[in-house]
């Protein structure tokens, strides 16, 4: 049962007299009935008006009886020991204003902007605003089956709540009445109690705190923007410039300062209770955002003139396309996403082909409008990618979870990879000159960071393993070498030695100069993503 009791009468009287809206009055009385907040503004005002007409001795409660779960609370201040000086009523208990006097104030207040919530729990709870939000959502053309609603409030609301609370606290002290709690129902929580059912009804989907589709509203109140500024003088440590923040007066910084500032210092700088503003808040932004969708697969690269990702040096593009772009352009169009992030299990050089079953990859599609795809639709999307270019092919294209991508990244260092290298030697060779390579197992290498990647990789010596090698003689100066290696092995450097930075190397093993002419990745032994039936 949620209700107002006689002990709440002075709080109701004070707040209504000072320009507080009915819903904020309920918040300050710690009323936790969600249904009650959803009643029309005029009805709530009438209920409070009737409540104030009851005699002070009446113990019965007046309000609607609604069963609701317990609500969250917003702690406004730390409890302080009340000394003798706190009660400055000189031994006399001032009388409350009469019910008639209070009602005069009540009757004039419905058209005023609330001095605490600045209109958030007034105009922005009405059907017209809800329809405006839903029109924005529907026009954005998102696919969603539920939603989560978020709201960004002006930081000065915290200052006004503190001022209103101190007014309540002072009134109760003057009356010699106890104030059992120093918390109120959070404004955001009360607003969501009111707005959630309306949005659900209008959008025809439920509100769900775990939904990936977010509807957000950003409120501002330019008229009172400077009300936080006195806190910067009182608590300068709380307001420090931060990246991506237009103002130091963030909600968290203001709350932190309010926790630190002494009550008497606060009262010197801010009116208590707060004055009524002239204007309502502005709804600056109504935004929609869908959680990221992840698509995975394996790709083959058949071109020796195609980088994995855009090749840009000093701001200049070197090649017209990349594996990443050939795949992502189709996904971006179909999922209608804002942007994407490409990742893969390792990478090959621009002149290296990737054959066999291909290399695992994943693409994060940011803020997609479309999120539901059947297996048949994914198959058609895969075919569209494959038909668009002879440089790449994609297989096993599928939707995956964010968590599943971790399996792909684990394989970068832990799994093995198989390569085929075409090698040239300066001195003539015979079959028997390279046959011994087939017998070498678990060859340990010390690879100093290659010169060609030193600009983007830290200088270090990495220990790597060549598990097996199989040679294939071609002619006196050429042979093909098939290698199975530890992931992360630099194959080109293993062949030519990189000026002695990789030891041993094919050149040192054959006792002659060797270089690599072609390199193919034949397999990436990462068992992910799952193979799909054709």
From TrEMBL:
Keyword Plastid on entry: no
InterPro entries per the UniProt record, alphabetical: PsdUridine_synth_cat_dom_sf, Pus10-like, Pus10-like_C, Pus10_N_euk
Parts forming coiled coils: none
Subcellular location: Cytoplasm; Mitochondrion; Nucleus
GO biological process assignments: tRNA pseudouridine synthesis
A matching Pfam family: Pus10_C
Keywords, ordered alphabetically: Coiled coil, Cytoplasm, Isomerase, Metal-binding, Mitochondrion, Nucleus, tRNA processing, Zinc
GO molecular function, one term: metal ion binding
Primary residence: cytoplasm
Ranges of residues in domain Pus10-like C-terminal: 294-525
E.C. number(s) listed in UniProt: 5.4.99.25
Cellular component terms (Gene Ontology): mitochondrion; nucleus
Domain Pus10 N-terminal eukaryotes: 114-288
Nucleus as UniProt keyword: yes
Enzyme class, broadest EC rank: isomerase
Catalysis: reaction(s): uridine(55) in tRNA = pseudouridine(55) in tRNA; uridine(54) in tRNA = pseudouridine(54) in tRNA
Signal peptide: none
PANTHER family: TRNA PSEUDOURIDINE SYNTHASE PUS10
Similarity section: Belongs to the pseudouridine synthase Pus10 family.
Protein name: tRNA pseudouridine synthase Pus10
């Amino acid at each position: 049962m949620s209700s107002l009791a006689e002990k709440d009468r002075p709080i109701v009287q004070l707040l209504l007299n000072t320009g507080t809206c009915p819903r904020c009055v309920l918040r300050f009385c710690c009323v936790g009935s969600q249904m009650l907040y959803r009643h029309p503004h005029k009805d709530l005002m009438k209920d409070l008006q009737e409540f104030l007409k009851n005699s002070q001795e009446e113990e019965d409660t007046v309000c609607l009886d609604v069963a609701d779960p317990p609500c969250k609370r917003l702690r406004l201040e730390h409890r302080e020991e009340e000394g003798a000086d706190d009660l400055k009523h000189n031994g006399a208990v001032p009388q409350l204003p009469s019910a008639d006097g209070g009602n005069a104030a009540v009757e004039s207040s419905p058209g005023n902007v609330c001095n605490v919530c600045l209109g958030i729990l007034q105009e922005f709870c009405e059907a017209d605003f809800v329809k405006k939000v839903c029109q924005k959502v529907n026009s954005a053309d998102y696919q969603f089956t539920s939603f989560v609603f978020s709201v960004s409030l002006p930081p000065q609301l915290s200052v006004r709540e503190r001022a209103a609370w101190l007014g309540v606290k002072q009134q109760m002290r003057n009356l010699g009445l106890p104030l059992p709690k120093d918390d109120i129902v959070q404004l955001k929580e009360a607003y969501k109690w009111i707005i959630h059912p309306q949005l659900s009804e209008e959008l025809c989907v439920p509100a769900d705190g775990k939904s990936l589709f977010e509807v957000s509203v950003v409120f501002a109140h330019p008229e009172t923007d400077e009300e936080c500024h006195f806190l910067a003088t009182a608590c300068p440590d709380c307001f420090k410039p931060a990246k991506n923040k237009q103002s130091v007066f963030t909600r968290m910084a203001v709350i932190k300062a309010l926790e630190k500032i002494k009550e008497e210092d606060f009262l010197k700088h801010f009116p208590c209770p707060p004055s009524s503003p002239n204007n309502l808040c502005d709804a600056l932004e109504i935004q929609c955002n869908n959680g990221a969708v992840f698509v995975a697969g394996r790709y083959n690269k058949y071109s020796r003139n195609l980088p994995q990702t855009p090749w840009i040096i000093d701001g200049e593009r070197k090649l017209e396309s990349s594996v990443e772009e050939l795949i992502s352009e189709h996904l971006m169009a179909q999922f209608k996403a804002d942007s994407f992030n490409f990742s893969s299990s390792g990478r090959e050089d621009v002149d290296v082909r990737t054959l066999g079953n291909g290399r695992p990859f994943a693409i994060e599609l940011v803020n997609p409008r479309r999120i539901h795809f059947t297996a048949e639709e994914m198959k058609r999307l895969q075919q569209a990618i494959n038909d668009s270019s002879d440089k790449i092919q994609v297989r096993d294209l599928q939707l995956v979870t964010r968590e599943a991508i971790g399996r792909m990244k684990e394989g970068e260092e832990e799994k093995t990879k198989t390569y085929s290298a075409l090698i040239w030697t300066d001195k003539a060779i015979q079959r028997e000159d390279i046959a011994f390579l087939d017998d070498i197992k678990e060859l340990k290498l010390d690879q100093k960071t290659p010169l060609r990647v030193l600009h983007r990789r830290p200088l270090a010596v990495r220990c790597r393993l060549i598990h097996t090698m199989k040679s294939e003689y071609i002619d006196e100066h050429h042979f093909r070498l098939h290698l199975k290696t530890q992931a992360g092995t630099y194959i080109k450097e293993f062949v030519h030695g990189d000026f002695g930075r990789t030891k041993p190397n094919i050149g040192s093993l054959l006792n002659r100069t060797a270089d690599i002419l072609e390199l193919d990745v034949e397999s990436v032994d990462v068992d992910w993503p799952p193979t799909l039936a054709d």
